[in-house]
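Late entry, written up from scratch paper. The run itself happened at the end of the previous shift, but nothing got recorded in the book at the time, so transcribing now.
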Amino acid sequence: MAHPDDVDFGAAGSVAGWTDAGIEVVYLMVTDGDAGGFDDGLTRPEMAALRRNEQRAAAKVVGVTDVRFLGYPDGRVEATLDLRRDIARVIRQVRPDRVLMPSPERNYERIYPSHPDHRAVGAAALDAVYPDARNPYAFPELLTEGLEAWTAREVWLTGGPSANHYVDITDRFERKVSALRAHASQTAHMPEEDLRAMLHGWLSASAAAGGLPEGRLAEPFQVVDTA
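Output as recorded:
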């Protein structure tokens, strides 16, 4: 993901379901979120350190303990070869079956998920999955580091315009809220009832779009077979 809190807004309920089922989940944040927050009293390095700690705390809420950061500058991410290599490196280290990432497409129905950093990270991550991580001749320095090629079998895109899969998180809604409240620098300005109402509206609409019964809450994804 591009920033701390992106995974929690987009997929914390689904992640909680995966870890509950015994699936190991690793987070990779491309930036430290140093351009975020509302506190002018903090320097940008202090904000970055705070947001890293907030992401680690939020991750624990949904059963994730391995949280990694690449340290790219918040607000200035581009889908460069260096970023593709750095993401491919972690894919080869972790060797995942599934890679969750922001959609590289702009969503005109709901603009907020289409932050430029999100789209850049989505484009770079998709290229890192295919072809970079699986091609032993791409970024030969990774082989020198002892990292063999790896093929991830599927990609889950979040925040995009073309959802084709909906995960019922009704029973994990409270954990999603708790994970987001852990990002106090981003959510403390919002009364909890307002945050809950905002999330409930998004997730209810997604559940309806996915054909789930009334009263259910769902996180939407576009699932892509990359095996």
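The first helix runs from residue 6 to 20.
(Scratch paper discarded after transcription.)
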